[in-house]
């Protein structure tokens, strides 16, 4: 089983050492990783894994029965053998953009819940542009302006963001109705990793995030489309993406 070393609050680490447990020409499994495996609406990290006599470019990362497989896009040399020490480097710029975007998704979701009583039905974060589906919702242009304004007001307040594990029972008692899809998290997952924005929001989430809202820059809403009865999709981006 691969140790998820970025949890609960080490999601700023982008270079680390690890040991190979399994390797093929298609993927590499390590004893522990800071690479984020795709999930929760967030794409996987990209980067490289290097060892004495070889290296691999990683363009996909996913979970498989407790292991994290680092998908090999290209391989220089033979795959490393079990027990090989490796140096791993995550694409820092891409990780930072995804962390900022995921945190911005939490901000917009909070604003929409508070102002329009609409829950987040789904989301997909990308490094350049992201989207959130809300229901029940029907937004007009004035509503979108309001969402953008309040989201940027929260960012300007530069609230701190903490990431920590909390007992599931405590999370279930304290998270606001409509803010988290707790039914989709298996009952055996306890404690839950929680992302909390001081005085603003709290939500169980396993993704990578900024350490404060001031890191996000401004949110700009790009589009809003209907995705079915009472479901609206908001697309947004951030200023100063790297």
From TrEMBL:
Native source organism of the sequence: Halovenus carboxidivorans
Listed name of the protein: Alanyl-tRNA editing protein
Location in the cell: Cytoplasm
Listed InterPro entries: Ala-tRNA-synth_IIc_core, Ala-tRNA-synth_IIc_N, Alanyl-tRNA_Editing_Enzymes, Thr/Ala-tRNA-synth_IIc_edit, Transl_B-barrel_sf, tRNA_SAD
Organism taxonomic ancestry: Archaea, Methanobacteriati, Methanobacteriota, Stenosarchaea group, Halobacteria
Key words of the record: Metal-binding, Zinc
Stretches assigned to the Alanyl-transfer RNA synthetases family profile domain: 1-242
A single Gene Ontology CC term: cytoplasm
UniProt-recorded Gene Ontology molecular function terms: alanine-tRNA ligase activity; aminoacyl-tRNA deacylase activity; ATP binding; metal ion binding; nucleic acid binding
Keyword Zinc among record annotations: yes
């Amino acid at each position: 089983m691969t140790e998820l070393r970025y949890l609960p609050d080490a999601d700023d680490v982008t270079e680390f050492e690890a040991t190979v447990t399994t390797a093929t020409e298609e993927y590499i499994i390590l004893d522990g990783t800071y690479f984020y495996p795709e999930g929760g609406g967030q794409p996987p990290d990209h980067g490289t894994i290097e060892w004495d006599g070889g290296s691999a470019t990683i363009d996909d990362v996913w979970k498989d029965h407790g292991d994290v497989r680092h998908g090999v896009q290209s391989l220089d040399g033979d795959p490393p053998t079990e027990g090989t020490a490796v140096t791993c480097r995550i694409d820092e710029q891409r990780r930072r953009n995804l962390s900022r975007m995921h945190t911005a998704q939490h901000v917009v979701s909070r604003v929409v819940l508070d102002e329009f009583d609409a829950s987040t039905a789904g989301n997909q974060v990308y490094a350049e542009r992201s989207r959130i589906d809300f229901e029940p919702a029907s937004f007009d242009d004035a509503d979108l302006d309001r969402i953008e304004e309040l989201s940027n007001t929260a960012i300007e307040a530069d609230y701190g963001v903490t990431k920590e594990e909390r007992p599931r029972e405590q999370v279930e008692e304290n998270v606001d109705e409509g803010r988290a899809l707790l039914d989709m998290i298996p009952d055996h997952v306890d404690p839950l990793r929680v992302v909390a924005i001081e005085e603003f929001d709290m939500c169980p989430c396993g993704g990578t995030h900024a350490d404060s809202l001031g890191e996000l820059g401004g949110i700009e809403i790009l589009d809003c489309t209907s995705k079915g009865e009472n479901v609206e999709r908001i697309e947004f981006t951030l200023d100063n993406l790297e």
